Structures are given as C-alpha cells and as structure tokens.
Amino acid sequence: MNTRFNMFDNEIGVRFAKRFANAGLAIHQSPLPKSTQELVSLRASQINGCGWCIDMHTKEAAAAGETSVRLNLVAAWRESTVFTEAEQAALALAEEGTRLADAHPGVSDETWAQVRKHYDDDQVAALVCLVALINAANRLAVIVHQQGGSYEPGMFGRWSD
C-alpha cells in the first residue's frame, strides 16, 4: 500500500494540520495526565487501524517514559494488570467513543460513571475532546493511506504556536 496523497506537501493540508495541532495543544496543556492522553490515542488508533497514529502515539509515549509492557498491552487492557482504574475508565471511553456505530447508545452509562469517578470536569472535557480529535486524525490518515514508521517524537511541536 502506498500513500495516496501527502497532506503535508499540500498548502491546504499543512494549514489544516497546523490548526489541528493547535486544537490538540488545548488537550496537551490540560490536567489530563499525559500518559492517559497517549494511551487513549493509541487505543483509538488501534481500533481504527491507523498505522501513522499508532506509530506516533507509541513513540511519543515511549519518549515520555511509558514502558514497553504497558504499550504492548493497550490492545488487551481488559486482560492486563498494568493499568489503573482511572486509565481503564479512559480506555473504555476511548473504545466506546470510537465504536459509536457498533454500540448504541455509544458510551455506556457505566463507562461514563467510571470516567466521572476518576476525572474532574477539566479532565473530562479534555478526554472527550481527545477521543473526538484522535478519531478525526485517524480518519484523515487512513483515507490517504498515511503509513506509519517514519514519525519522530516531537516532530509536530513546531506547529503548536
């Protein structure tokens, strides 16, 4: 599979990517733990089959000190012992918020109650925005077949003015 279209070689694509990165900056600067941000982004990207975003969030998490054990177990978080209850709630929200078409009514009341138990209002806002943003990023990359493997941690930091 070859990349169909390089959004980063297109003026409109780059302008959009810069604004997209700035929207992500609000989440990045939020009180939602950075490790949770990367785990949630990684899980949604796994579900959506986005190699580019899996590459990005695995490398960013590792660069921030996340362990290989936890990164390797994200896809099977329910069958592992390495995630906190708060992280499990966030991962459940990521899955249910990503699989909206697969599970009516979307995010279950049980998952929502667990999220509210572990996160304050600012963290909940960041978490909901993150799930929406990573799903949009996944769709952009999957549509154009943006392939994983070439991402370097921090490479988009210059776009977050």
What is the topological layout?
Blueprint: H1 11-28, H2 34-48, H3 51-63, H4 68-73, H5 85-98, H6 109-118, H7 121-143
Helix pairs in contact: 1-7, 2-3, 2-5, 2-7, 5-6, 5-7
Q: Can you put this structure into words, describing what you see?
A:
It holds the Pfam family CMD. This is Alkylhydroperoxidase AhpD family core domain-containing protein. Keywords: Oxidoreductase, Peroxidase. This protein is mainly α. The chain has one domain: AhpD-like, CATH 1.20.1290. Helix content is 61%, strand content 0%. It is built from seven helices and no strands. Helix 1 (11-28) packs antiparallel against helix 7. The longest helix is centred in the C-terminal third of the chain and has 23 residues, at 121-143. It starts with 10 loop residues before the first helix and ends in an 18-residue tail after the last helix. The model has no long low-confidence stretch (mean pLDDT 92).
The CATH superfamily turns out to be AhpD-like
The rounded distance between the terminal residues' Cα atoms is 34 Å
| Average pLDDT for all residues | 92
How is the CATH topology named? AhpD-like
What's the total number of strands?
A: 0
Give me the CATH architecture, please. Answer: Up-down Bundle
Please report the number of helical segments. Answer: 7
Q: Give a short account of the largest sheet.
A: none
Beta-strand content bin: under 5%
Overall body shape = globular
Gyration radius, rounded: 15 Å
Structure class: mainly alpha
What string gives the helices and strands in order? HHHHHHH
Report low-confidence residues grouped into runs of 5 or more: none
Residue share in helices?
55-70%
Count of the separate structural domains: 1
CATH top level is: Mainly Alpha
